[in-house]
Amino acid sequence: MSAARHSIGVEVRYAETDAMGIVHHSNYLVWFELARTHLCRQTGKDYAAIERDGHQLTVTRSDLRYRRPARYGDSVVVTAWIDDLASRRVRFGYEVQRTEDLLTTGTTEHIWIDRTGRPCRGPEALMPAFRRLAGIEESP
After folding, report:
1. d(CA 137, CA 121)
2. Which of 32, 40, 66, 80 has the largest CB neighbor count within 10 A?
3. pLDDT tens track for 97-138
4. Domain range holding 35?
């Protein structure tokens, strides 16, 4: 069973570019977040509802590899998936493509925290859906 992927289209806005006319590196993390939150909706709860229920996924690490630049006016597709899942940690993988050109790849690692701000296990009610998205088979 393979991990579910969610892709979202983004049109590069002028405000996302630098003086050289290419997308500033920090914007890729914003695009990753956009794709990740849409992926999380596939659990049956959007991220805002997860937070209202008392849990957050806090970013602990991000890694990006810039292969080719995106430019103002480009249309890109940002894809997210769960790359690794543990009881307290989730690692998401990402790709940014313009047509067939792979522009950027990356990962973000997150830990679950509760209302007190302390690390905790992922919410019991959500973990089956996260395992499904990660392509991890549930035992009968």
Report:
1. 19
2. 80
3. 999 999 999 999 999 999 999 999 999 999 999 999 999 976
4. 5-134
